[in-house]
Task: structure prediction
Amino acid sequence: METTEQAVHLHDEHQKESWEGAGSPFNVSYGKLMMWYFLLSDAFTFAGFLIAYGSLRFSSPSWPVPDFVFSTAPFGIHDAPLIFVTIMSFLLIVSSVTMVRAVQEGHRENKNGVIFWMLLTILGGAGFLSCQAWEWTNLIGKEHMTVTTNPFGSHLTDGVYLDENGNPGKETFRAGSSYLMHKVASGAGHGEGEHQSDSHHTMAKGDHPGAFVDEKGFIHRKFQITAGPKSGSTGMEEFGPKAFGALFFFITGFHGFHVLSGVAFLLIITINVGSGIYAARKNGYEMVEKIGLYWHFVDLVWVFVFLVFYLF
Result:
């Protein structure tokens, strides 16, 4: 009976302290609670961007095929969709695992263990950023994709490309198949719809047999529709939807900024761990746990970015 009364008394005291502001109602530190608030608001931001991407994509009659757009990789690898982005994702996921190990070592008050696993996490984040830098360089420098120009697209009708004499050639395309606009200066391109010749490098702006060069130096191939209500008519490949390039660079860039910020914070906290600041607090390296929450959030967001841009 006495034990029950003591338990009730302690419960009443705890409630009283909570209402008076002497303790946390959720038994969570103020710092971790604020981190959760920040991550929740950031999740809404990313959700808004991804919903906007989905709305624009499904309202567009054509959209670039991911297997075609992201089919290149370093060292001259072509026609290997998802290979490079898989490496990127693997680095980020592994860095999340090493972050878990750093938090565990922090709970054990093992300073050297925290430093070791934090350094591996930093390497994983830096590796991901390096891969993203290469991907952006390839898309901008070789494929000429910008926030306002998207050379990737997909055909809406079946047809056949016209040759240099303006006659139907042997190369055909199917509705929905991907194409890539080519620039005269570089002739960069890959995949279905590619057609380059040495003469293209010296083509002047304007109309040419089988092709048209616009003011920006992009080659638009002429084609003849072979199926559908407009069968027999001719036209030129149009650029893909502008929204694709803008959305890709903005959303992946926004996520990359989060990764870059995370790597910077991880580095600062690792230096603080080495100096012994957190060991003196005897709180299980709570700062490491807080940055761990942020890092896991960044990894989780990448899963959704990966799904919308690289798989669908």
Summary: Helices lie at 2-19, 30-58, 66-69, 83-107, 111-142, 242-275, 277-281, 286-311. The chain has eight helices and nine strands.
